[in-house]
## 1
Amino acid sequence: MSNIPGVGVFGTSITAQWITKKLQEQGFKVEAVWSRIFADAEAVATSLKIPFYTTRVDDVLLRKDVGFILICTPPSLHSQIAVKALGIGKHVLCGVPGGLNQSECLRMVQAGQYYPSLMASLAYTLRFHPSITIMKEMISDGYVGENINLVDIRINCGSLLDTDYSWMCDSSMGGGVVSLLASHLLDLLTYFQLGRVARVHANLNTMTRTTDNIKGIRSITAEDYAIIQLYLSGGCCVTISINSVMSGFSQDIVVCGEAGYLAFSSDTLKGRKNGASKDQLIHLDSSQSDSELSNSGLPTVHSIGMVRMIKALRDGFQARAESRDVDSGAASFSDGLYVQAVMEALRRSSETRQWRKVEMYDEDGSGPIQI
């Protein structure tokens, strides 16, 4: 008998539908779908052959044939759905950044602690991109040396805003490049095991305040441009530049150490040891050209990671025996709490134009404590 649980999906966005299809392709049976709008839930259920649809959260969570909850909703709903799902014994995969603030994410962490055998993960998909996985292994093996002194990351992309006004226009509701893009990069630093962020400096700006459809009394507050400096506890300096007033999507990640550097751009991972005459091609990802990945509503680099993440989840469920433990290698809710702490420090820094220390709630609810 298969250990793969039935899935309940919260959300009907383009991305939610694409992920649902990928789950079905990997052997997951999607049993129910939820949306705030009944017509949307019905349309998606009909299109993807999902037997049950509803606008009531509990109608999905209490179904006996649903053991795995996928949350693809606005961040304001992440915490309440995840906490309730874990409380009644369901595995949870939640979209990023996992709530609106540390308080919401802390409740998610504590809910997961009551049921440690349940999967409680966040969809930080860069961890599963093949080039990123190779980068981590090479960093661990000392390719760039023991002392990593600089990480430089640059993203140029098109607008993240919906056509009409939505939560993505409001930074306090989880919109903006910090929550939607920088959060993935902050988690990547954890994945690379480079040390915790101790101090931050940020310049966050909203270049696009109105559009043809978003104007009048409604203004856009979500930042679309960010210049971020991070100082890690181990001494490494990190610079992140995000510009979402361009077009397309490009992401460059460079990790420099005393012995050389690694550079990931688009579908190519290269490296160079000190003293070498030219770069070494380490990995070329052919899946970058897969046309299906462009229909996800995600940047291709994240789509590739999501597909591999779903496969890891399937393998994790299939591998477990009597225990309910599922080890997929995904980011935990505790990882998400840390990312929230850094993002809050970034916003404080941008408001005050000063370097700020990262203050994080302890998982027992005490704090905040400085990292």
Note: The chain has a mean pLDDT of 93.
## 2
Amino acid sequence: MSRKILIAVSDYPNNESHVSLMYVHTRNKKYFAEGLDIVVLNFSAKMDYTIEGIEVKAPQKNLIKEGDYDILICHAPNLRNHYKFLILNKHKFSKIIFFFHGREILDTGKVYPKPYKYKQKKFLNSIFSKCYDILKIKLWRNYFINERNISDFVFVSNSLYEEFLEHMKVRKNDLKGQVNVISNNVGEIFEIEKYETNAVKKYDFITIRNYLDGSNYGVDIVNNLAKANSDLKFLILGKGDFFLYNTKPTNVIWLEGNFPHENLLEYINSSKCGLMPTRRDTQGVMTCELLTFGIPVITSNIAICKEVFSGFENVAFIENDDKSINLEPILKKLSLQYSPIKQEKYYSKNTVSKEIELIKMRLEEALDE
């Protein structure tokens, strides 16, 4: 038995500042450090490469042979890549672990907010999206139930698990108890480093969104709050076309780009508070990282945020639809609630370590078969 693990993803970070699915790479580094023999299959890669010691392969014909790998891990499985790959190769793995992060298992037209006008699809594209959601749910539902004996299902929050049951029309008994709720871990630097309360603060609020154009990320909410709080200074980090279609207030500084974790710390320490509203999320890893680092954060008063950020003292919740909120008193109250003791809820020892336990258990079971 090989004891090797293949991790299949639709995209992956590389050595050229591409940071897509960084949350997968973050946990993979922990797997690697733990001695797990992992290889990443990046469906978007054009060639093989290595990043921080982890081998990443591009899809090729006859890449997977019988006995090459024992366990397959699929992150955010989609039809175009993962489903096709599974149909052709599922018999080559003893165990399969599915990690669900959001829209890949949901009826997106029902639960995701309406896109910004400049991102709205043409009518035919909209019809295609609806048909795709129907097909996606039907095919995956059948697959998950048929292959449940060799599969594990990992959800990043209880809220996502409950939505999965609703949208997939699956009963809890259908999955034979192979369900785990394990949140994404924060980046290691947010565990090690600590928010510098005494650092010079250039900004009152910082918002970090790799992709500004998703309406679920609420950059328009931040923009409206900046207009209503003209005496406060806002920093927005991220890429997108949002400010090509929306007027940016003079008290907003926008730095375009995707920033590695190490480069974010300077901006976070230069800010008094994180401002991370969201209309729709399944965990909100960046917000978890800010809170773990120690900076106070204002986020949205929605159920998923209440679940994921419970236990943190340095967080406040606001209504997304209230465009005239005075943020200054909230900011002052949060500054008084600062605690020098870091919250460890999303440390790797409480998150990714549970994944490693699951993987090792499945490896042992496979060896015994």
Note: DSSP finds 13 helices and 14 strands in the chain.
